[in-house]
Each structure stands twice: as C-alpha cells, then as structure tokens.
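Input chain follows. Return structure tokens only.
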Amino acid sequence: MNELQINESGELKVKVQTHPVLHAAGVFFSWLFHPLIMIVWISWYLVYVNDLVFLGLDDYDRLKVFLRVMSTSVFLPLITVLLLKGLGFIQSIQLRLQRERIIPLVACITFFFWSYYVSKKLQDPAELQSLLLTLFICSSATLIINNYFKISMHAIAAGGMLCLAILLLYTGRIDIAWPLVFALFAAGITCSSRFIASDHSSFEIVFGFCTGIVIQAVCWWIVH
C-alpha cells in the first residue's frame, strides 16, 4: 500500500511502501555508506591500502594523516550534528528536512575547507587534496541546491567515490581493479538504499550522483 505525504513545500507526494525486510536492508546500507562513513572508507584506503599514493611514508606518519583528516572531516561534523540534536535545533540526526540541513552544512563547509587548507599547506598527495577539496565544494553546492530541493547527500558521496576510483585507475595510482569494483557496488547499493529507505525522489538521487561525479572530476583537475 502506498502512503500520502506532504513535503515542506506543501506538495502532496506518494510514498511507495516497501517490504519491511527490504526497508531494513535499505536503512542498514544507508548507515553503512553514510557520507561521513564514506570519508572514513576512502581516507583509510588512500592512507593505508593504496601504497602508490603515500609511497614511502611510515606507519606513524600515516596515522597522523589519517587522524588529522578524521578529526576535521568526520569527528567535528558528527559532534556538531549531535549537539544540534541535543539542543533541539534539529529533530533528527538524519536531517530529513531541508531547513535542518542548513546549520550542519555551514559547519561542514567550514570544517572541510580547513581540512583541505591544512592538507594543501602540508603538501599531502594530490589524491587526498582532491578528496578534501571535493568535500568542501560538494557541501557548498548542497547548501545552495538545498534552497530548491532536497538533494541526496548519500548519492553525492557515492558519485564522488566512484569518480575518484575511476581517476585513480585511469592515472595508474592503483594497479588492481577491485577498488573500482567496490566503488561500483557501493554506489549502486547506496543509491538503491536511499530510494528504498528515504523520501528522496529518483531525480534527487540521480542529480546528487551526477553532482558528486562532476565535482570530484573538477577538483581532481584543479589539484593536479
């Protein structure tokens, strides 16, 4: 049975009801591939798995890079959202409403810019710099687009991750194809999960996915 919902603009939307098991799977993968969690996956891969990016860097220095990125790009945004929830500024940490996204996005823009700026000053590999610049520009673009419709941030992250994997393979920064296979799987399962377990329309998901791809490609070009 379908469910009628009224969005923030007062428009009536039809929400297709899915099987409880399928919905639970969609929720699980939505959390597993949450945009902040994707930053952890990608950063971990670049720092610890891909030896061609941080070639010659010892384990201690790799740990410092990883913790630096995690603190500014994951921990601080997460703490901001939790504080906003605790103070009553947002109803849910899932940021279901467009108006609830504004303050967290402004905070993320600040944190992501600082993370990119520090990375650039410390002369991190261009691959990591392009990722951090992508985070900054994607959050800025999301804030602007959020004034018009609720673009899927999960889809933006999935598109950016897939584009980064393609660029790494194309430029010879990875010598095996499994990261691209994983990125394809993660992108497909993430976008499908958001269609199943959220109130996003197919347009919001597809547009977000394409936005992530384009911004990551542009940032790669800028940094390189």
